[in-house]
Amino acid sequence: MIYTVTLNPAFDMTVYLDELVKGDVNRSIKSLIDIGGKGINVSKVIKSIGGESIALGFLGQENRGNFTKQLDRLGIKHDFIYVEGETRTNIKLVENKFDIFTDINQKGFGITIENIDKLFEKIKYYARQGDIFVLSGSLPEGADNNIYFELIKLLKNIGAITILDADGEALKNGLLAKPDIVKPNINELRMIMDFKDDLNSIASVGKELISQGTEKAVISMGGNGAFYVTRDKILYAYPERVEVKSTVGAGDAMVAAIAFGESKNMEDEEVFRLAVSSATASIIEEGTKSPKLENINKLMKKIKIERWM
Question: Which one from 117, 131, 252, 268 is the annotated catalytic residue?
Answer without folding.
Answer: 252
